[in-house]
DNA sequence: TTGAAAGCGCTAACAA
DNA sequence: TTGTTAGCGCTTTCAA
């Protein structure tokens, strides 16, 4: 069939193990034989069989990435390709490969994780979401399988390596920005309560509001489904209140897009009637009208760092859990303005 | 280390080969021993080692998906997660896994493909883009490695299996829709000329315009970079012409988003001043204001079908090349209106 | 219907 | 510095 290490060995007049050593660039092989072997590899068009290698060394040189189950439209969020890009770029450097799960629902996703882990397909796993009572996370914990979370774990925080932003502070900053602009009535629109990212951002918003002694009616906090319906409902609810908000903290740019369009339909103008702040700095936050004031969370970098951490973990299973906080940067654009 | 087939064999009091046959659900094994073996597997928590299996059968039960090199912002297009979702759903059914390339540029992507193919990491490959002079495609052709394209190959069309929409006709329909609404000055905004998808859509636009004997000045055809800059430049160019268009055929919803916002800044209203038609039916096409008239190309289904075809190809290398055309469906919404 | 044994292609002691 | 050899865990003839 394919050209194996034996063929190369024969042609170079050495033992297979020598060829193996040349592949690994073992320093105790003379430069001369290395050259000869490499030439033989070239001549024959040799490429190592990864499965055989993996079997022998009991690793796979690849890692798995788990997305939120794709039933969720959230998957259409450009966040995901962007972190993947970051993860991929780092993996590529170290010649690792990338498996992704794209299970349709929680169950199939879980099955895929099990296949990855139990079948030795991957050396480690990156979770691109974090929420409470996640069977996947529990499974990995219990198996003591190397994994890192992009985001913050809901529990066992000290035992899990994760990379995240300081979402609480970022959200607080955003809210304070609105407060400094004179806004007194500020509402929060977030995603599912189960997600840590939502609860952190809510938390930051809350504490800023409290510190400024501003009103914080329950109706100002909306947890909503993603996108169209979500944005619309949220807007409808908020703007039929007796005192509708003049400032908004929205947990995701994509949601904001929905919110803005719902507002427009109601004839409410941004930023004249309502100032909007948002999260993620997706490219689309620059092309909306007005351009969004949003938190750049460095999605790409979140990806890179998570890959880096995971690789460390796989090299050394006893590596202590750590937490990497990626700095954020608020992009002040046109969607916020002082209250008049 | 891990529990192997031998452990199971021992516990069940059979030979390893028998266990293997039970795993494969070989019909010549008595129901009784099957039961016994399965119980042993459960008791021990056995999971087959995929690398060993792959080595023995010389396959990998996984396929690779190649994205356009991610230097391109295009990657932020929700098209990709969506088609991945389709691919993943089918693969999951047949217990295959999914590798993705996320090379940063053309070169690293090419390297990754080589690693996938030469290292026997994957049994087949899906290309999520198609453009002229693509080294990846040439490499796969030459190696006779099973692959399918989502989109249409630029050359060797009859030798390559691909799944696509009838983009020419769809674009023609879109253009005709504008023509029927009374528009006489219709422009086309597309992406890179190198991409088949762009050239097909341009082609359809062209032929509709010609058949209606409408003017087709060169300035009405814009090839632009993606997104913000692209959309803006395109709009600026078009709307400083002596006779600016009143109708637009844009090759992608995301571009359209950029276009719409650029228009808004110039004080040009959609659909009053200009009717816009677009492609892909991304969820965001519903939440823009106005909602977009756009072609639903069934992204998810493109993914499913491409996976299905690829698996057939891997089973049978001599499977003749085929072409799957996924029907499209134009969603008529609010971004188009009769000319007044 | 089942078992024994060889082999998939590679790595890693252990020798030399 | 290099070769010999024994696996890694599974599948698959060939025999029984």
Automatic annotation (TrEMBL), chains A, B:
Alphabetical UniProt keywords: DNA-binding, Transcription, Transcription regulation
Keyword Secreted appears in the UniProt entry: no
Lineage: Bacteria, Bacillati, Bacillota, Bacilli, Bacillales
Gene3D superfamilies assigned: 3.40.50.2300, lambda repressor-like DNA-binding domains
Natural source organism: Gracilibacillus halotolerans
Recorded superkingdom: Bacteria
Pfam families associated with the record: LacI (PF00356), Peripla_BP_3 (PF13377)
Protein name: DNA-binding LacI/PurR family transcriptional regulator
Domain HTH lacI-type, first and last residues per copy: 3-57
GO MF annotations in UniProt: DNA-binding transcription factor activity; transcription cis-regulatory region binding
């Amino acid at each position: 069939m394919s050209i194996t290490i034996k063929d190369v060995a024969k042609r170079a007049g050495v033992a297979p193990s020598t060829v193996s050593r040349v592949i690994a660039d073992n320093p105790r092989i003379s430069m001369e034989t290395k050259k000869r072997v490499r030439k033989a590899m070239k001549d024959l068009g040799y490429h190592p069989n990864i499965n055989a290698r993996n079997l022998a060394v009991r690793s796979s040189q690849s890692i798995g990435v788990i997305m939120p189950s794709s039933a969720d439209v959230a998957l259409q969020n450009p966040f995901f390709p962007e972190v993947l890009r970051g993860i991929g770029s780092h993996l590529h450097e170290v010649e690792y490969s990338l498996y992704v799960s794209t299970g349709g629902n929680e169950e199939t996703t879980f099955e895929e994780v099990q296949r990855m882990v139990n079948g030795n397909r991957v050396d480690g796993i990156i979770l691109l979401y974090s929420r409470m009572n996640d069977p996947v996370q529990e499974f990995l914990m219990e198996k003591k399988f190397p994994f890192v979370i992009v985001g913050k774990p809901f529990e066992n925080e000290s035992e899990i390596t994760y990379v995240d932003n300081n979402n609480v502070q970022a959200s607080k900053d955003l809210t304070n920005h609105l407060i400094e602009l004179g806004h007194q009535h500020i509402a929060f629109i977030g995603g599912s309560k189960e997600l840590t990212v939502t609860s952190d951002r809510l938390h930051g918003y809350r504490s800023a509001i409290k510190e400024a002694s501003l009103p914080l009616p329950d109706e100002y906090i909306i947890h909503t489904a993603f996108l169209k319906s979500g944005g619309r409902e949220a807007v409808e609810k908020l703007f039929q209140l007796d005192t509708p908000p003049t400032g908004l903290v929205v947990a995701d740019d994509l949601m904001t897009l929905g919110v803005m369009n719902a507002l427009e339909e109601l004839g409410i103008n941004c930023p004249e009637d309502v100032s909007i702040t948002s999260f993620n700095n997706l490219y689309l936050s620059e092309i909306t009208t007005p351009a969004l004031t949003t938190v750049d969370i460095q999605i790409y970098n979140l990806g890179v760092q998570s890959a880096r951490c995971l690789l460390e973990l796989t090299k050394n299973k006893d590596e202590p859990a750590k937490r990497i906080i990626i700095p954020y940067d608020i992009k002040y654009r046109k969607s916020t303005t002082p209250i008049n």
